[in-house]
């Protein structure tokens, strides 16, 4: 017990020291703002203004350069901003490392063999934080899609009274609920800084990767290039996306029991094995020390993965329109 407490204190100390002394995410925003203002003044003096977007994942230059080279961390950065965690990519990586180390120490303390503890810690490093972040991001996108028909209704009303598409977006940024207002505030801000409509909408789809957003972005982009009745386009988009939202809710309700069963079947063996090792540390040793036992464990893990994938495929129904 004392060993686990000391490990937790050490992990917490490393996290807070790194967070406050090395990364300084609060100061990062002020630094970027100052840098942006300097670029704007320099471009104004030259008579033209071009906005250049550069992400900074850490105040440590070497680490920042490494993270910027990987496209995976760009996706992580987008999901961190959408989920509202308020941390940088480097802090997220640090939390993942500390969590994997802490899990390994717990498994060793519970007398789990290294043949199981090391792969479990490695899987936790790569999949647990990313899985939680992906889940939070999926909830954010789902919430956006649920309120998206309301945004289309506001745009249609604004266009119907003679306002332009940019003014309609501005009304959405004020009148629509979260997170619609947040995303359209970003779009309006990019348009005000001189971005083209196509570029601003492409940025919206990059942040919110859903079928509804793609339909909206493609429809507006085509309308801006070829012309047409924008109010009628918004009416058709609103009807189509509303139908999708209703069908998604029905599918989610119909597959709820199957999804819950899949989670229980996938996690129950590991929970039972951990409890057995805590109650009787030597109970499962023959299963890992004997070659036949190791083969049975391998076969069981493969069958569990296959079963989880099959259940996921069964409940992951796609809307045909």
Give the helices and strands as they follow along the chain. HHHHHHHHHHHHHH
Main sheet makeup? none
Name the beta content range.
under 5%
How would you describe the shape? elongated
Number of strands: 0
Question: Helices, strands, pairings?
Answer:
Layout: H1 2-23, H2 25-46, H3 61-69, H4 71-83, H5 89-109, H6 114-160, H7 165-175, H8 180-192, H9 197-207, H10 211-226, H11 230-254, H12 256-279, H13 285-289, H14 291-315
Textual characterization of the structure:
The chain is mostly helical. The chain contains 14 helices and no strands. α1 (2-23) runs antiparallel to α5 (89-109), α4 (71-83) packs across α6 (114-160) and α10 runs antiparallel to α11 (230-254). The radius of gyration is 25 Å and the shape is elongated.
Descriptive labels:
disordered N terminus; Receptor-associated Protein; mainly alpha; 0% strand; single chain; 321 residues
Q: Gist?
A:
With 321 residues, this protein is an all-alpha fold. The chain has helices at residues 2-23, 25-46, 61-69, 71-83, 89-109, 114-160, 165-175, 180-192, 197-207, 211-226, 230-254, 256-279, 285-289, 291-315. It folds into 3 domains: 2-112, no CATH class; 141-246, Receptor-associated Protein (Up-down Bundle); 255-315.
